[in-house]
Structure prediction request, 657 residues.
Amino acid sequence: MFTELVEILAEAVTVRAPEGEIVYANRTALAHLGFDSLDELRQRSSQSIMDDYVVEDEHGQPLTMEDVPSVRLMHGNRAEPVLMRVVNRATGELRWDLLKAAAVRDDEGRFLGAMTVIEDVTAVKTAEVQTRVLAESGRILPSSLDYRQTLANVTEIAVPSLADYCSVDLVSERNRLERVAATHHDPGLRRLAEELRELAPDQPSAGGVGGIMSRVLSTGTSELYSEVTGEQLADVARDQHHLRLLQELGLRSMLIVPMRVAAQTIGAMTLATDQSRRRLGDGDVELAEQLARRAAVAVENARLHTKLATVAATLQQSLRPKDPPAIPGWEVASLYRPAEIEQRIDVGGDFYEFFESDGTWFLIFGDMTGKGVTAAALTALMRHGARVACRSDPAPSAILASLDEVLAQQAGDAMCTALCLCLHADHIVISSAGHPPAMLIAPDRSVREVPAAGPLLGAFPDSQWREETVRVGPDELVVLYTDGVTETPGTAERFGSVRLQKLLCGLAGKPPATVLERLDAALDAFAGRAGRDDVAALALRTR
Amino acid sequence: MQSHFRVDVQRNAHAIVLAIMGELDLSSSTALEEEIAGAIDSEASLVIVDLRGLEFIDSTGLGVLVKANQRALDEGRSFGLVRGGSQVQRLLSLTGLADRLKIADTPEELIGGD
Prediction:
């Protein structure tokens, strides 16, 4: 009765005698182990049956007879359920078995044998592995812009869950293939895998693996070699040395999947099995393709980012004011601190430019309304516009009038405040377009603010600007600043012009560079955690 | 330092008064631009921006006022400001706007004189 019941169970059931051999297996168990009858099974030793399989735990550690629950019971040990990853050496089929065993005893408690129930959990575990691989890749792929490291991490996810070996080749700019990452499951075989890496095809057009890869790259279609034959191995190998390495690895299955971004194939991912004896199949292709697609997107993002960063750096270079040039008779220092970093471009609406006409130096210093790249692009217009204007009429008021015209022609409602100066040996000619006046600080700490306000640039159709001629004494500081300085927000109030004036008075007689260093530090201290706006300042004195 | 910005709108038969409070800078200027655009599109013949409650204005904020003046005139409306505090007035005169825009001490003054 008991036997009949067990016989029709969907679970595989075996009974191991105290001597150690399997004495009973139900129909499901026989089918599971690949035998037609119990007699056929009983002709084989348990060890030889186990040798037909590569048996590992779920972490990829090899399991032996001694780990089998029924064998443990037989030896008088406790037997916890064991999850086994089993690969049939002959067919390469992968299975997940959950083994649970219980001792069978007679009424006197004598050990009669161990009964094992084998539950096939392949479907559940396969789904679990797939989910884990994709989840881990989702976590790793966006984590770094160093795509080489990212791809190395991806190959480590694929091994050993998906395959024993995983490598990634990318098509470089010169249409060469570059092996970017490779991982092998067995540390002892890493060396071989490394050597294979050395032998990696560097030309998509080369034969062997290169030939397969070349096809994958050009067609964008995966190629699966479930069972690599000796003949194919010779085809795949680049030369005799390569062939020996592949034989030593015991290559079984090989799968090359394209790494695609939109319609473009940027590389290929290779998966291979050897020591695990696992055969890769269609299910693996699907998962590998998903992994490769995600990796491709990550690579493309990283590359795009690098490209953008280069563009940003170039743009920033052209939009940022340069360090002031050497101007005969004048000592000049500058401070330029844009507040916002937009698209990694560290620029703002503040600007200055020094230019020369017939041996006389001019200076435009200003603040474009708005912030970031948009404002910065217009500052370039102001800087170059001032240079051009100076050629036809080298006077501060005329330069401002010309810039006003240039700005009015711009689309949008760009407005700008500016000071324009002409630097002479002992005096300046200065004109203002709505800009905070320059502060002149004499060594005796007396302060002057010049010039009187004129209209903003780009604001009114019929503006005019006046010029003031101001004598600058020896060691007298001329400080120009944008409203970002006085508007720097502190915890309770803004920095303000009174605080600025007090600070500058304390620095009377100091070199321009020192004055701006102190100003910068003071603004930092004042702003605290509140952060700072765009800030620019120039300090000048005659020498 | 906290930046509060608010616009109170009052309409009567001829005029719209936008009383702005707090800080008018890059972050708040868009809100004011929208209110002003709405006011200019309305039936009102006079648009007034009351600066008395304004604690701070920067160059972007000034830009909004200049643009508003230009648009209102283009649309055949009158535009005026009610005088603000010292920081606001200092910046208006520094930028030459004080000479160019119609400025009064109260909205009534602007409405009466219109």
